[in-house]
């Protein structure tokens, strides 16, 4: 087992990883920017190392600075959390060259799965169904012909995109060329890669993903599925497990398909296979996330399994602590992302000092957060302030508990706006209550309130 792990992230995930490391008897180093010098994660860790200024390019995306920090502090492994360098294959390769384990799959597979075009090819060969579209990046002319053949609407995606960025939905042929050029420019600006591909767009699909765990001894298991259909700007707001009201047997088929696909490519560590489910109950591969997901906590709530512990153990060469028959999912868990955003202004991020922070409590309520009274929300990073996770034996009880916890949450500042009240409107919406919602729910709520 590792003796020291460097955490190359910030916010709630850095603190969450550090807590499990402490429970495992592993010393921690938090790599932080100048803006996060007094963060909760830095205060909690055994050591800290400043890796650069507030802007992410000079700190959390500065691979050389992160690797240098690991070498200087004697860390044997780096936990990248999510975002930033967590799926950077070049960084994983550099870590390996210096004898440091990046907690995740190997760099070659990470590169293949991180490229959405090659991932589609790889997963298609593994037997997963794909939406009609291209298996390789296209020029605008070829893409336009394919879009006409598929039928509109289509979606243009950056090959290197992620986190809801680098995507454009096109409703008609007249808009295609402009959208194609715009998406290529976004891909180049955000990801340094202007390649794009095209596939059919499902405007009323459900977004369902499967949590995978795999070790280096050939064992691959799943921990069930999660529904992530409540999204704004194609980024998740509410997640739950199990996914409600799926056709009989569908969840099991998805989980078995995801497990088989992960095994076929030699996946190791924690990962998520994401699918779109159409109105007929057919599911289609969307992408693989080679990292821990923000919403991993709902899976932990229904299984009792610490995913970070399993990640670290597998990366150090140990076998998984359990096999598929040992996975016992009980009850329902819901996660609500409380973001520093103003829903009335198209979820615009808000930077502000926090003058009041009192998270909810009570039975089966978990709050993962790095915030505290006196903390200032910086303008440089993701807007996530807290993840509220609740568990209950039945879904209606879990919704009631989440609503109670959101009402109890006290979070304020001079210019701070959050998604807390909007999340209550989502949970109270009849379509959500009846599990009849899809990825259009947030858009529908916003349009009726406009």
UniProtKB/TrEMBL annotation:
Protein purpose: This protein is a component of the acetyl coenzyme A carboxylase complex; first, biotin carboxylase catalyzes the carboxylation of the carrier protein and then the transcarboxylase transfers the carboxyl group to form malonyl-CoA.
InterPro entries, per database record: ACC_Biotin_Carboxylase (IPR051602), ATP-grasp (IPR011761), BC-like_N (IPR005481), Biotin_carboxylation_dom (IPR011764), Biotin_COase_C (IPR005482), CPAse_ATP-bd (IPR005479), PreATP-grasp_dom_sf (IPR016185), Rudment_hybrid_motif (IPR011054)
UniProt keywords, alphabetically: ATP-binding, Ligase, Nucleotide-binding
Top-rank taxon: Bacteria
Annotated protein name in UniProt: biotin carboxylase
Pfam family, one: CPSase_L_D2
Record-linked PANTHER family: BIOTIN CARBOXYLASE, CHLOROPLASTIC (PTHR48095:SF2), PYRUVATE CARBOXYLASE SUBUNIT A (PTHR48095)
Domain Biotin carboxylation: 1-447
Reactions catalysed: N(6)-biotinyl-L-lysyl-[protein] + hydrogencarbonate + ATP = N(6)-carboxybiotinyl-L-lysyl-[protein] + ADP + phosphate + H(+)
Source organism per UniProt: Saccharothrix ecbatanensis
Every ATP-grasp domain range: 120-316
Molecular functions per Gene Ontology: ATP binding; biotin carboxylase activity; metal ion binding
Enzyme Commission number, as recorded: 6.3.4.14
